[in-house]
Amino acid sequence: MRLVRDDGRTEQVIATEVETADSFLSQARGLMFRRSIPDEYALVFRFDEAASRDVHMVFVPFPLDVLWLRDDEVQRKERLSAWTGLAEAEADRLIELPAGSADAVSVGDEVRLER
Length: 115
Known about the structure:
Elements: E1 2-6, E2 11-15, E3 17-21, H1 24-29, E4 41-56, E5 64-70, E6 73-80, E7 86-98, E8 110-114
Parallel strand pairs: 3-4
Antiparallel strand pairs: 1-2, 1-8, 4-7, 5-6, 5-7
């Protein structure tokens, strides 16, 4: 799987090592307790419906770029600092990436998961 950003003019692959967090336990754990993640990595949280989704950085020792999506459209983008970052937005999909991976992503872009 890979994660692709589409701004309507160009497409860009932003991650090639994609893991999904579909169970309650995998979603609750997220990236906590990991020492690092690869540069081409993304953790995708899929939900049945859009709702307020928060992300905390407790026990995450490295910064992340986080995308909140609704129907594949980016609603919010935030860089969260290690250990102390916290943010929330409405989404039906949430994506966590290494800091810097989402620099080219803007609110309104489409981000989709491809096989």
